[in-house]
C-alpha cells in the first residue's frame, strides 16, 4: 500500500507542512524509519531527532515549527500514528469457511462468511454472528451467543449461557463463565453455592490472554461496551465494569463490585468485594481498594488514598526509620530527665 502524505492528513484530520505529494509506504519508529516511511514525535524531548530521522515524513503536534522535512501536524500525534498504523496493517483476510474437523451442534445457528478452524466446538442452541472467527480449540458452551466480527483465539473457553457482543476480541486462554468462587460454612465444611447466573460481554470489548471472568451467582456479570482488559486478570461473580474502562494486567476484582465508566485500574490493583468505584477514576499500580471510591479522582497506595495524600504518606513512610531513631533518643532523654527530677525530689 502507498499513500500520499496529503491523503494521510485527510485520514487523521491533520495539516501538511511541506511537500504533500510525498509517497508513504510504511510506518516505523523514529530511529528505525527509512525513506518512504512515516514516523511520529509525541514527546518534545525527541524533537532533536526530527533532523536526524531518515523518514520521509513525521507526525508532530500543531505547535512544532516547519523543518526541512515534510510534517503532518495534528492535535494528538500518538493517536494519529495509531490510526495510520492501523490503515497500513489492517487485515484483509477472507473467510475460510468451516473446517470439517470442527464440531458444531445441529441446533446451532450460524451466520454468514465464518472462519471456524479445526477442533473448535459449538454447543447446542448457540448463535454465531456473521464474520466471526473461531480459532483451534475454542469451546462455546450451549445457549451462548457471539456477535458479528468477533474473534476468539486458540483455546478460549466460553461456558454455557454466555453472551458476547459484536467485534469482541478474546485472546488465547480466556475463560468466560466459570463458576464464581462462592461457599458457605456448615460447621467446618465448605458448601458450594450454586452459580446459576451468566456473563454478558458487550460490543467492542477486548480481553487479554489467560484472563478469567466468572459467571454470576444470580443475575449477570457484565463487561460493558468498549472495555479493554489486559492479560492475567481475574473478574469475579456479579462484577459490572462500565463503558470504556481499562483493566491492566494482574488486576483482581472481587465479587459484586461495581466499576464506573472510563475507569483505569493499573497493574496488580486488588479490589475487595461489594465496592463501588465512580466514573473516571484512576487507581495506581499495586493499590489495594477496600472502600468505595468517589468519581473523577486519582487514587494510589495500599490501603488506597487520594493520589496527593498517598504521595504525602509515601514521603512520611520513607522517613520512618529516622523518625523511629529520633523517637528512641527522645525517650532516653525523657527518661533521664524524669530520673533527675525524681532524685531531686528525694533530696528535698
Outline the structure in words.
It is built from 3 helices and 40 strands. The protein has 348 residues and is α/β, with parallel strands linked by helices. The chain folds into 3 domains: 3-89, Udp-n-acetylmuramoylalanyl-d-glutamate--2,6- Diaminopimelate Ligase, Chain: A, domain 1 (3-Layer(aba) Sandwich); 97-306, Hexapeptide repeat proteins (UDP N-Acetylglucosamine Acyltransferase, domain 1), CATH 2.160.10.10; 315-348. A hairpin with a 2-residue loop joins strand 22 (183-186) and strand 23 (189-192). The longest helix has 41 residues, at 307-347. The model has no long low-confidence stretch (mean pLDDT 94).
Spatial shape: flat
Total number of distinct structural domains: 3
If classified by CATH, what would the architecture of the largest domain be? Answer: 3 Solenoid
The level 1 CATH classification of the largest domain is Mainly Beta
Tell me the fraction of residues in β-strands, as a range: 25-35%
- Trace the largest sheet across and list its strands: 8-11-14-17-20-25-28-31-34-37-39-40
According to DSSP, the number of beta strands is 40
Question: Which descriptors apply to this entry?
Answer:
ten-stranded parallel sheet, UDP N-Acetylglucosamine Acyltransferase, domain 1, Udp-n-acetylmuramoylalanyl-d-glutamate--2,6- Diaminopimelate Ligase, Chain: A, domain 1, alpha/beta, 348 residues
Summary of the model, kept short:
With 348 residues, the chain is α/β, with parallel strands linked by helices. It has three helices and 40 strands.
Amino acid at each position: 500500500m502507498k499513500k500520499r502524505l496529503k491523503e494521510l492528513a485527510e485520514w487523521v484530520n491533520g495539516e501538511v507542512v511541506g511537500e504533500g505529494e510525498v509517497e508513504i509506504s510504511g510506518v516505523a519508529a523514529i530511529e528505525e524509519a527509512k525513506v518512504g516511511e512515516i514516523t511520529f514525535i509525541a514527546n518534545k524531548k525527541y524533537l532533536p531527532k526530527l533532523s536526524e530521522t531518515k523518514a520521509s515524513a513525521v507526525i508532530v503536534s500543531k505547535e512544532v515549527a516547519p523543518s526541512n522535512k515534510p510534517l503532518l501536524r495534528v492535535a494528538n500525534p500518538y493517536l494519529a500514528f495509531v490510526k495510520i498504523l492501523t490503515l497500513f496493517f489492517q487485515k484483509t483476510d477472507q473467510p475460510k469457511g468451516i473446517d470439517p474437523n470442527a464440531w458444531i451442534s445441529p441446533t446451532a445457528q450460524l451466520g454468514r462468511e465464518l472462519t471456524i478452524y479445526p477442533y473448535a466446538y459449538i454447543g447446542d442452541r448457540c448463535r454465531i454472528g456473521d464474520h466471526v472467527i473461531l480459532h483451534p480449540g475454542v469451546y462455546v458452551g450451549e445457549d451462548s451467543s457471539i456477535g458479528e466480527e468477533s474473534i476468539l483465539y486458540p483455546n478460549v473457553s466460553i461456558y454455557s449461557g454466555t453472551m458476547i457482543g459484536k467485534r469482541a476480541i478474546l485472546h488465547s486462554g480466556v475463560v468466560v463463565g466459570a463458576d464464581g468462587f462462592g461457599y458457605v460454612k456448615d460447621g467446618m465444611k465448605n458448601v458450594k453455592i450454586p452459580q446459576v447466573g451468566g456473563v454478558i460481554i458487550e460490543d467492542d470489548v477486548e480481553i487479554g490472554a489467560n484472563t478469567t471472568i466468572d459467571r454470576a451467582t444470580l443475575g449477570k456479570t457484565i463487561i460493558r461496551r468498549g472495555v479493554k482488559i489486559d492479560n492475567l486478570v481475574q473478574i469475579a461473580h456479579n462484577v459490572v465494569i462500565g463503558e470504556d474502562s481499562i483493566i491492566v494486567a494482574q488486576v483482581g476484582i472481587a465479587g459484586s463490585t461495581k466499576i464506573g465508566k472510563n475507569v483505569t485500574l493499573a497493574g496488580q490493583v486488588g479490589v475487595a468485594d461489594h465496592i463501588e468505584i465512580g466514573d473516571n477514576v484512576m487507581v495506581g499500580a499495586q493499590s489495594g481498594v477496600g472502600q468505595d471510591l468517589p468519581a473523577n479522582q486519582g487514587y494510589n497506595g495500599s490501603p488506597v488514598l487520594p493520589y496527593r495524600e498517598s504521595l504525602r504518606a509515601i514521603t512520611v513512610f520513607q522517613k520512618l526509620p529516622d523518625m523511629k531513631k529520633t523517637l528512641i533518643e527522645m525517650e532516653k532523654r525523657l527518661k533521664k530527665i524524669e530520673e533527675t527530677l525524681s532524685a531531686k525530689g528525694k533530696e528535698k
